[in-house]
Design brief:
Blueprint (H helix, E strand, L loop, with lengths): L1 H22 L9 H8 L3 H7 L3 H12 L10 E2 L2 E2 L4 H10 L1 H7 L6 H19 L6 H23 L6 H25 L2
Antiparallel strand pairs: 1-2
Helix pairs in contact: 1-2, 1-4, 5-6, 7-8
């Protein structure tokens, strides 16, 4: 039974990998099941054993990339655990860089950023529990996640031109002290 499961897993993975190779160069609307199955070396019926359509392949890939609370250690703010630390977010992006660089880039799925934010928000709110019930906090978390995802996407698009340490240091300064403080300290008075 284990061999059957391994074979099924490998078949599904090969289809997903073939789809991904094509998706990196082509808009999803232009990708056909025939194209994917030809590249993977399977027939259409094998494809439909695992997926409903091309969009389902992308959806399943994206679901594997979304963080869950078990995978994310808590961040500490004022000696309290709060949610997802930047370094864990960076590590997550780097481990699956070939996917994130495409999905967060101009060729990617515009809905993926929303899915990523929602997944991270769920993890943060699960960590907070019933401690906080604030519409304002929701805006703060949305702002923070937008900044984190935006800077990570930009970093990937620039070929990771800053070291991980520099990026974490810069992001930490911006989160701790704000943009105005950074500009005042680093640009206006140097």
């Amino acid at each position: 039974m284990e061999k059957v499961n391994d074979k099924k897993h490998m078949t599904k993975k090969r289809i997903m990998d073939s789809f991904w190779d094509i998706y990196c160069d082509k808009k999803i609307e232009k990708i056909t099941v025939k194209e994917v199955t030809t590249k993977a070396g399977f027939n259409r019926s094998t494809f439909y054993e695992y997926f409903l359509d091309i969009y389902d392949v992308l959806d399943q890939i994206e679901k594997e990339l979304l963080p869950d609370i078990k995978a994310l250690p808590p961040i500490k703010l004022a000696n309290q655990n709060f949610g997802m630390p930047i370094d864990s977010f960076l590590k997550m992006l780097e481990e699956k860089e070939k996917y994130y660089s495409v999905l967060l880039g101009e060729k990617g799925d515009p809905q993926f950023i929303r899915k990523l934010k929602d997944s991270a928000k769920n993890a943060i709110y699960t960590t907070l529990g019933s401690k906080v019930d604030s519409e304002e906090l929701d805006f703060v978390i949305e702002y923070t996640l937008s900044a984190m995802i935006g800077i990570m996407e930009y970093w990937l698009s620039k070929g990771k031109n800053l070291s991980n340490e520099k990026l974490l240091e810069l992001t930490g300064k911006l989160m701790d002290n704000g943009v105005s403080s950074y500009l005042t300290d680093n640009l206006l008075y140097t």
